[in-house]
Prior knowledge:
Distance between the termini: 24 Å
Oligomer: single chain
Structural class: alpha+beta
Amino acid sequence: MAIELNHQEVLTPPTPSATVMVLRDSPDGLEVLLVRRHGDSKVLGGVHVFPGGKLDVLDCQTSDAQLDQTAATLAASLGEAELDAATGAGLYVAALRETFEECGLLLHRELPQHVPGQLRLHLKDGLGFAAAMTQLGLPLQTSTLKPWTRWITPRVPSVSNRRFDVRFFVALAPAGQEVLHDNHEVTETVWLTPESALRQYWSGDLGLVPAQIMSLSQLVRHTSAADVINTASARLPLLVEPEPFVHEGVRTVFYPGDPRHSVKHPVWTAPTRLTFRNNRFEPDGGLAALLG
Length: 292
């Protein structure tokens, strides 16, 4: 699909958001869930992304009694000194809520079969996500999520005229639950190995944007879902602030560790720059560089 570059400077602060890379093991290896945003969406319409969305006010009004970890613990796990406890916990709640709303997966261990259907009814009746879980007698299992990265889009975003401050989480796919997209925000769900997703992107069969491209390029270097979870558990989330540069009309986005980026220390083994050419974002070295 065709990607249109954004050239507009955005002066408003980035919107706090959360997204989840839901993982599972398959006969083909590690797989990750991708959802296709509705073509009419104002943000990344028609593009395949990980389930997620903006932080909601209600997400930040969750009490410790509704959580399986304290708000202070959750905020500390994100490694952001300026982050207050309510917002930190709210980002976890937003990740759980958006995953359920967009693809029908409730990240909860040993979940009774009737719960997802009951939860949908409560949400349809206007009850907030956390309140609905409380109504069902269930805590929000934030421990199913592990922080992975934090992406802050620059003042001139590459593919949107909006800025986002997105916390990426990883989580194991819950057993016994079926993916069910909402046909409103999301029109398709697909499980793919990171390598297959990147190959389909390269062939033009899958629309991806830089954050997803680079995240998949990290995942392709892992052999199993447990390997990813263990890696996330052993470190604080990586901070990624892309720095775009335009030379002779060509947009290149630099990442930490690149000689042109203000942060010289690399945060990953994936490529450190993407250039927009052939109507897509490409690293030096092509597809082979993304696949490691």
